[in-house]
Amino acid sequence: MASSGRESIGRWISVLHRIGQIYIASELESLRIGKGQQSFLAALFHRDGISQGELARILHMDKGAVAHALLKLELAGYVRRERDRVDRRVNLVYLTDKARNIEAHLFSVLAYWTDTLAEGLSDEERRQTLALLQQMSDVAATALEKQKERRNSG
Question: What is the mean pLDDT of the chain?
Answer without folding.
Answer: 92
